[in-house]
TrEMBL record, chains A, B:
It comes from Longispora fulva. Residues 17-26, 134-150 form the Uroporphyrinogen decarboxylase (URO-D) domain. Belongs to the uroporphyrinogen decarboxylase family. The record marks D71 as: Transition state stabilizer. GO terms for cellular component: cytosol. NCBIfam families: hemE. This is Uroporphyrinogen decarboxylase. InterPro entries: UROD/MetE-like_sf, Uroporphyrinogen_deCO2ase_HemE, Uroporphyrinogen_deCOase. SUPFAM superfamilies: UROD/MetE-like (SSF51726).
């Protein structure tokens, strides 16, 4: 039995399972080597590359789960939205999506649009053996923020202005993106993903009232009734963890600001928790790493299910040896 | 009696007072005109400019308080740290501060270092008449983050790595910056500022435990025993408002994520509250502006003192007419 799947289901575990958001990526020299000369979107569409990149951290660290290597804009690009990923910047579009016509022009995703995802997941599941694969998708709000801003943002001015000023267009856009994200996850589940994580990376930019009004129904449409356990995470969502849970989660991911025992006390017995180690802790001396890992383990032990993770993604210049030490510490405890 | 000073002291008010963080600045055409061709730091060192810029929003909007126009790095530059403010970027240093020698090289601030601040405040207080002036300073953590990163950051990697990895250097740096911020506020108070606001803009990047360990003692050293009421604010500090209050506040500023009634219920009878209107609401249609202003007023009415404000600074491309409408709405209610 996988420790990860047990924790996700709030069942007894042989040891606390651990994986890291962005464990597959720039912090690994073997990743930088294999990605050299290949663009991000092209990499995500190449099953052999996706398989190798997803496996790299599993091999190196012995983590308890693999996270499907992809990008949140992959399914959006697959339906023809002219979006690209600029190295060091993130997703960018020349023409932001802001009108009813812009939204209507986005078509639905079908499994036939992403044969490379099915192929990559099948291949991966074969290679992974007993290690479960976590499927990956971006949530409607976060996807919409990239489409409406035309790129990453600090203030989400255009996104919120559309939300407040043209709620019909906003909801039509998010409903479309919810359908796309849903199919993207279903494709991964059909091919063998054992759980999924919905990344609503920037949902924390909203107040709880705005989240419930403008974002949550669309995330619920992605998550509701999926046939595998669901992890739901957004940075800076500590002020509305209950809403993140209610949107449809089995595991609520929390960032480095919300201790796991605090999160779990608020969420109650029906949810496992994941996260909280500050992504900068791996840069600290070993005593600090040990102190913080022990703290997260002790706080997580109070929850009905605990998946050890960072409170955000692995920073690109993280020392892989520090992550390896953390995995070993978690497994020894 | 000033409605603003009454609210800050949790006394009965004739109407709810309102001002806006960054009300003096780029959103005003008269500001862009007067600043044309003058660098930010140079502007902050020119009393006539500071006076005019600080007065502009008071004249235009009829807000209940003026906020001293300055920048958090002004006192740091005044002791010779080679920091500049790059338009569209923020504070930048060629050589970040990261070693014990770097910290030791920063000298203390004396009132004689900033005669232009004394002069500007005196002149302003004369012009403002009954409208109180809020003194302005940046908190040690936020100042330190600029010095350690060498500029703005999203992840505070170097800042947290120094905090965790070399706490002695970190605390020495913050103690130095606390002394500088303290003197900077005392100079403004001596010249006539009737309240102060300490901006710990990026403190929300810390967990409460880290804030209490690494930042709060230094903010307390700035705020403790000042002779005027103190407003204390940081974006994204909803997870640790109690600590922001305990650091030494009469008014706790909250961002758009924490409703004022929720904040006040947590803080109790000893604190007034300020903030919460999303800075993007001024971009919304008038119905949404009215709905949100009424919501904030209703929630703020449950606190023992309420200063109406945004949950963050005014966005540079905000329509001044929308802010004027908000001031009028607040005053009519």
């Amino acid at each position: 039995m996988s420790a990860f799947l047990a924790a996700v289901r709030r069942e007894p575990v042989p040891h606390t399972p651990v994986w890291f958001m962005r464990q597959a990526g720039r912090s690994l020299p073997e990743y930088r080597k294999i990605r050299a000369g290949t663009g991000m979107l092209e990499s995500c569409r190449t099953p052999d590359l996706v398989t190798e990149i997803t496996l790299q951290p599993v091999r190196r660290y012995g983590v308890d789960a693999a996270i499907f290597f992809s990008d949140i804009v992959v399914p959006v690009a697959a339906v023809g939205v002219p979006i690209d990923i600029k190295a060091g910047v993130g997703p960018v579009l020349d023409e932001p999506v802001r009108t009813a016509a812009d939204v209507a022009a986005i078509r639905d995703l079908t499994p036939e649009d992403v044969p490379y995802i099915t192929e990559a997941v099948r291949q991966l599941v074969g290679e992974l053996g007993d290690t479960p694969l976590i499927g990956f998708a971006g949530a409607p709000f976060t996807l919409a923020s990239y489409l409406v801003e035309g790129g990453p943002s600090r203030s989400y001015t255009n996104t919120k202005a559309l939300m407040y000023g043209a709620p019909d267009i906003w909801h039509a856009l998010c409903a479309k993106l919810a359908g796309i994200a849903r199919v993207f996850l279903e494709v991964q589940i059909a091919a063998g993903a054992r759980t999924v994580q919905l990344f609503d990376s920037w949902a924390g930019a909203l107040s709880e009232a705005d989240y419930r009004r403008y974002a949550m129904p669309h995330s619920a449409a992605v998550l509701d009734g999926l046939t595998v356990p669901r992890i739901h995470f957004g940075v800076g969502t500590g002020h509305m963890l209950e809403a993140i849970a209610e949107a449809g989660a089995d595991v609520v991911g929390v960032d480095w600001r919300t201790p796991l025992d605090v999160a779990s006390a608020r969420l109650g017995a029906g949810y496992a928790v994941q996260g909280n180690l500050d992504s900068i802790v791996p840069f600290a001396p070993v005593e600090v790493i040990e102190r913080e890992v022990r703290r997260v383990l002790a706080e997580g032990a109070k929850a009905p299910g605990h998946v050890f993770n960072l409170g955000h993604g692995v920073m690109p210049d993280t020392d892989p040896d520090a992550l390896k030490r953390i995995v070993d510490l978690v497994h020894e405890n």
